[in-house]
Amino acid sequence: MTEELLDTTDVANLYGVTPECIRRWRMTGAGPRFVRLGRAVRYRREAVEAFAKSREFASTTEADMQGAA
Fold first, then answer.
1. CA distance 59 to 17
2. Number of domain units in the chain
3. Are the CB atoms for 30 and 21 separated by under 8 Å?
4. CATH code: domain of residue 56
5. Element holding 25 (H helix, E strand)
């Protein structure tokens, strides 16, 4: 079974943000978990999906209570 690995641009496109935003999230630990292969940074699709799921809220009040930015 081959595991799908996404690069920073792939993840940025999925979330509708810039690759720089993904890099900032990675540096601060605010984004999805990643894999470093030498100098290359990759993201497992399931980690990207889990991150998005963890940012899912029913209301802005709920998001504010969770400290979502």
1. 22
2. 1
3. no
4. 1.10.1660
5. helix 19-28
Written as six digits, the tokens of 44 are 């497992």
pLDDT mean over 52-69: 85
Task: Output the six-digit token pair for 35.
Answer: 């894999």
What pLDDT digit, counting tens, does each position of 2-19 carry? 788 999 999 999 999 999
Per DSSP, 67 falls in state: T
Residue corresponding to tokens 């980690």: 47
Task: Give dist(CA 9, CA 6) in Å, integer.
Answer: 8
Q: Count of residues for the chain?
A: 69
Residue 32 belongs to domain spanning: 5-66
pTM: 0.82
SS3 54: helix
- HSE-CB of 67 using CA atoms within 13 angstroms: 1
